[in-house]
Amino acid sequence: MFIIEETEKKPQEGGAVVEFKTIAEMFLNVTKSHAEAELFTEKVDGEWVGDKGKDIYEMVKNASYGMASLGIQPKDNVAILSTNCRRWAYSDYAIATRGATSVTVYPTLIASQVQYIVAHSDSKLIFAQDASQMDKVLQIKADCPELKSVIYFDESLSYDDPDVMSFNELMEKGKTFSSSDGAYDYEAQALSVQPDDILTLIYTSGTTGNPKGVMLKHSNLVSNILSANARLGISDEDKFLSFLPLSHSFERLGDYVGTHVGANITYAESMEQVISNLSEVNPTVAMSVPRLYEKMYAGVQAKFAAGSFIKRKIAGWAVKTGFEYVDARNAGTISPKLAKKKKRADKLVFGKVQALLGTQFKLFASGGAPLGADIGRFFDAAGITILEGYGLSETSPVITLNPPHDFRFGTVGPTIDGVEVKIADDGEILSRGPHIMKGYYKDEAGTREAINEEGWFHTGDIGIVEDGYLRITDRKKNIIVTAGGKNIAPAPIEGAICMSKFFEQALVHGDRRKFVSAILVPNFTEVGEWAADNEITDVTPEALCENPKVYEMLMTEVAGIMENFSGYEAVKEAIILPQEFSVEDGTLTPTLKIKKRVVEERYKAKLDALYE
């Protein structure tokens, strides 16, 4: 076994921060110490609008009182169903200062998936963003026994239901409650929240199909905030552009890191507007998954390729020069001649890449899926720092993070302060420390399986340590993590496909890919009958698999099945095989389970072709 020892404690570079032990206390501190600063910003009617700390304090206080007037007590569960916006954050802080627990729900989930999370978590109130999210909530409300109240953010909506109200109405109820006989002291209540209280439930995909509720304590997030920023050095002079879902721990931790020092958090209009928002907002920091960098890299390469012969030659020279400069910098041997060449490459080529991000960009933090070393190397050559890290929802989430001035391509960096990592005998990465979740909600067996008696959490990933830097080499678990950072459990998708009369076997593929695909084996009896009815004469398995009409029919069948899954889970392309997997050919285990790695390796060329 190999253990990465706890890194040396270093003073936080981001400036002095008032001590806090809970997220509730953090909120009180920052809204007072930065009362006149615009802490949260979003675009409204074409203009970027921000709220000052003192105004945020009042809104959150009134919303918290409003929840109390609706019967929400400390330790109750309250759900949030929304894309990133100011009111997502204000709802989160209102829940935290009330002493309740937030239940974060991905806004891309379909109604049945939302219903499972809201019902399983026993949520008593839900915040929903707009009409599309409200449609889901009203559709499932009757099937969520504990759900009593619904609050919507979009003030243009209106519902004839006493249990449904707008965020403004909630705050008005809070104002009335705060002066009533039953009122309590808001700040005293917020400060009574304990480090071991559950801050949030984050539902993450499980191998059985039903997501698991990860219970994270206030102390989990606080330790991760402080240790991550000891590595990053964020200060109140920084500005974040927030666009990954706050319902996931990665972006939420990033926003907390910025907020705890009084930095501005600006919410992107949408994922589609991120590139344009970067140049508009001019941020210094952003959190992202590799998919964004891949898109940016592909866009730059496409522009290079579309240029004239001379421009292509200049671009090639600039990239080569940039790589030489990065290697020389890392070795500490930059010559005056190379420095001059790099300056010219920046002016001719790399300056245009940098302009995509604004004029004061400092760094990207990358997580959720592995970042290609070549992509990281290219952006570094362009003067754009991408710091890759590693973690899971169960670890709050950061375990390791590359340092800004000593990052290494292809690795996820050394551990942050207070965190231990151990490589087990089978290569699995284990972690222990204050960042480890309390456990899975209503799942003691799952908790015992994930965290051993010595407190080591089993990540399900395989890795090695090189000079103190962790490198992820494989995944032990079957959970797919797409290039966009989405976690997908393949078993429910495979099971749903095989429920169709047209399919015998299915293997869902998509780890580190930009979309989900599948390797499918048809039921040739059923497909043959369909073919005969549609005037297809050659019904041998090989001929059916090569027939475009058959492929179209099978993919239409798959598309219908995928309507029961979220968009990012849906199978978009597939390989159709003319023979079943079997024990004899080495693709099935003796218990008739598909050997995923064997099959994916065997059909690697065809799978790669789907993504070209």
Mind explaining what this structure looks like?
- With 612 residues, this protein is α/β, with parallel strands linked by helices.
- Among the domains are: 21-193, Rossmann fold (3-Layer(aba) Sandwich), CATH 3.40.50.980; 489-610, 2-Layer Sandwich (GMP Synthetase, Chain A, domain 3), CATH 3.30.300.
- The strands form five sheets. Strands 3-2-12-11-13-14-15-16 form an eight-stranded mixed β-sheet, with helices on both faces. An eight-stranded mixed β-sheet has the order 8-7-6-4-5-9-10-19, sandwiched between helices.
- β22 and β23 form a beta hairpin.
- The two termini are 40 Å apart.
- Mean pLDDT is 92; it is low at 5-15.
Task: Note the topology.
Elements: E1 2-4, H1 23-33, E2 38-44, E3 47-52, H2 53-69, E4 77-81, H3 86-98, E5 101-105, H4 111-120, E6 125-128, H5 131-140, E7 149-152, E8 164-166, H6 167-178, H7 186-191, E9 198-204, E10 212-217, H8 218-232, E11 239-242, H9 249-260, E12 264-267, H10 274-281, E13 285-288, H11 290-306, H12 309-331, H13 336-355, E14 363-366, H14 373-381, E15 385-391, E16 398-401, E17 420-423, E18 428-432, E19 439-440, H15 444-450, E20 457-466, E21 469-475, E22 480-481, E23 487-488, H16 490-498, E24 503-509, E25 516-522, H17 524-533, H18 541-546, H19 548-561, E26 571-576, H20 596-602, H21 604-610
Parallel strand pairs: 2-12, 4-5, 4-6, 5-9, 6-7, 7-8, 11-12, 11-13, 13-14, 14-15, 25-26
Antiparallel strand pairs: 1-17, 2-3, 9-10, 10-19, 15-16, 17-18, 18-20, 20-21, 22-23, 24-25
Helix pairs in contact: 1-2, 1-3, 2-3, 2-6, 4-5, 8-9, 12-13, 12-14
